[in-house]
Design brief:
eight-stranded antiparallel sheet, 27% helix, alpha+beta, five-stranded mixed sheet, 444 residues, Trna Endonuclease, Chain: A, domain 1, 33% strand
């Protein structure tokens, strides 16, 4: 009776495993069906355009159902037959050896001509596989393309398109109060008006705008204490949406000024101060200048960030060189009759928790160069949490609230891991600002 040996079955299982992985990558697989030391070949295919390239890699499969030779948790060995090795090293096409264990869905590969380039290695005929580095799976795609594509071919294979969510730094404003109020007043400056309010109440609110002795606010100016500082007879109740959608640049500017006044009032109780000199908001220092952490929900899990932190001198760790405050620039913008707060992360550096550090330009330049897109995105998410959270301890009317960061799906995106430039450790270290006696501090 005719028989099919177990070794034949295992060998075919190895071929099937290679074919499945090659197809998962998006390459073409062709079996030779004539075993003369090559079991088949992989043709590189551009999965984005479906274009075949005629760039091939010859494949020799070596499958087993037994433990690999000299196997450990990290590696194993394979010794090549001298005749097979001579055959693989001839010819003009690259050859890879794939050692597999189909039952456990394991496959590992090496490029024969690259591995045995050294005469001593060739003489031994031994291959040492690294189970992480040499894994044959979809992550091997880029390495296989480099192996099969001649350096002078000019062939470029784009990264695979994929659906992607685009996250912006635009924080949508929740519906504003339906009406705002306008009234005439005898006060000419905001300082005078604030002083008058403080004489009448301890709960002084700042959600108002004074322009040419005209007071504008979301507060009902007909009520106290506002009735004592403006002419109630001149008070008008007007439509907020009409004002917000105005195309008159003067009215737009006044509308944004009122939104900024509401934003400052919203953030101050949260420990966030507005810097008139720099034009951004930043976390105030703690009373004892100790480090302050802010916990929030990121895109995937709960995390925290040091929003105020001191950095000591390298020469004397008992003395602080400067303090770093998390900050952001907030700009109100309108798109298609919807208002957003554009959040641009920044930093404020002080030498005593309040006054600006004289090393700010160097410190800010250094940290900006070190931060990648993901780090900036994380800060935007943190500030979105700060701006949208509201607790039982919040007091006063919430004239200005926010919904969420604007995001939208794209039908096409890029796999970041396939194209992003990874800075090596030496370059990253070169970008760091090292602490020394002159007052510079390493930023990590």
């Amino acid at each position: 009776m005719k028989k099919i040996s177990n070794a034949t079955i295992v060998g075919q299982q190895g071929i099937n495993l290679i074919e499945r992985i090659a197809l998962d990558i998006g390459f073409a697989w062709n079996a030779t069906n004539l075993d003369a030391g090559i079991d088949g070949y992989i043709e590189i295919r551009d999965s984005a355009t479906s274009q075949a390239t005629n760039c091939i890699i010859q494949v020799q499969s070596k499958a087993t159902e037994q433990p690999f030779e000299a196997e450990t948790s990290a590696s194993f060995e394979f010794r090549c037959d001298s005749r097979d090795l001579e055959y693989w090293l001839t010819g003009n096409a690259p050859v890879i050896l794939i050692r597999s264990r189909p039952k456990s869905d394991e496959a590992y590969w090496v490029s024969i001509k690259d591995y045995f380039r050294d005469i001593k290695t060739k003489k031994s005929g031994k291959i040492v596989f690294d189970k992480i580095r040499d894994r044959f799976d979809t992550k091997a795609k880029d390495a296989l393309i480099r192996l099969a594509t001649p350096s002078d071919s000019g062939l470029y294979l784009g990264t695979n398109p994929k659906q992607e969510i685009i996250y912006t730094n635009l924080l949508e404003i929740a519906p504003l109060p339906e009406h705002y109020f306008v009234a005439q007043t005898d006060y000419r400056t905001a300082g005078e008006l604030f002083a008058a309010l403080r004489e009448m109440t301890t709960n002084v609110r700042g959600e108002w705008l004074l322009n040419n002795k005209t007071l504008m606010s979301f507060h009902d100016l007909r009520k106290q204490p506002w009735g004592n500082i403006c002419d109630i007879g001149t008070c008008d109740e007007l439509d907020t949406v009409e004002w917000g959608n105005s195309v008159d640049p003067v009215r737009q500017r006044l509308f944004v000024q009122l939104l900024n006044a509401c934003l400052k009032e919203k953030l101050y109780p949260k420990g966030i101060k507005f810097s008139r000199d720099n034009g951004f908001y930043y976390f105030r220092a703690t009373q004892d200048l100790s480090e302050k952490e802010y916990a929030y929900q990121s895109r995937e899990n709960k995390t925290s960030r040091a929003v105020f932190k001191g950095y000591p001198k390298k020469s004397d760790h008992t003395k602080m060189l400067y303090y770093r405050h998390s900050a952001f620039e907030g700009r109100f913008v309108r798109y298609e009759n919807q208002w957003y707060l554009q959040v641009t992360p920044n930093y404020y550096f002080s030498w005593d928790g309040e006054r600006p550090s004289r090393y700010t330009p160097d410190l800010l330049s250094g940290i900006k160069r070190l931060e990648n897109n993901q780090a900036v995105h994380g800060q935007v998410v943190m500030w979105a949490n700060v701006l949208t959270e509201r607790s039982l301890f919040d007091r006063g009317p919430a004239f200005l609230d926010f919904v969420s960061l604007l995001q939208f799906p794209l039908d096409f995106g890029l796999d970041d891991a396939s194209w992003l430039k990874h800075e090596d450790a030496e370059k990253r270290q070169a970008l760091e600002i090292s602490a020394d006696n002159n007052g510079q501090q390493r930023l990590l």
